[in-house]
Amino acid sequence: MRWAGVALALLWSLGPILLVVGSSFKQARDIFATPPSLWFAPTLDNYRALWAGQPAFFHGLASSLVITIGATLLTLVVSCSAGYVYARHQGKLLQTSALMMLALRMLPPIIVIIPLFPAVNVLGLNDTHLLLVLLYAAFYVSIATWIMRAFIAALPRELEEAAEVDGAGMLRIITQVVLPLAVQGMVAVAIFVVVFAWNEFVFALVFTTTLAKTAPVSIAEMLSTVEGVQWGVVFAAATVQLVPVLAIVLLLQRYLVAGLTAGGVKE
Amino acid sequence: MMVAPALSLLLVFLLLPSIYVGWLSFQASTYGQHARFVGWANYATIFADPVFWRALGNTLVLVQVVVYGELLLALLLALLLAAPLRGKALIIALLLAPYAITETSAMAMWRYMLEPDVGLINQALVGIGLGQIDWVTQRWTALTVAGLIAVWHHLPFSFLIIYSAVTTVPRELMEAAEIDGARPWQRFRHVTLWVIMPALLVAVLFRTIFAVRLFSEIWLLTGGGPARLTEVLSVYLYRETFKYHEFGVASATGSIMLLLSLLVALPYLWRLYYRLVRGA
Question: pTM for the complete prediction?
Answer without folding.
Answer: 0.93
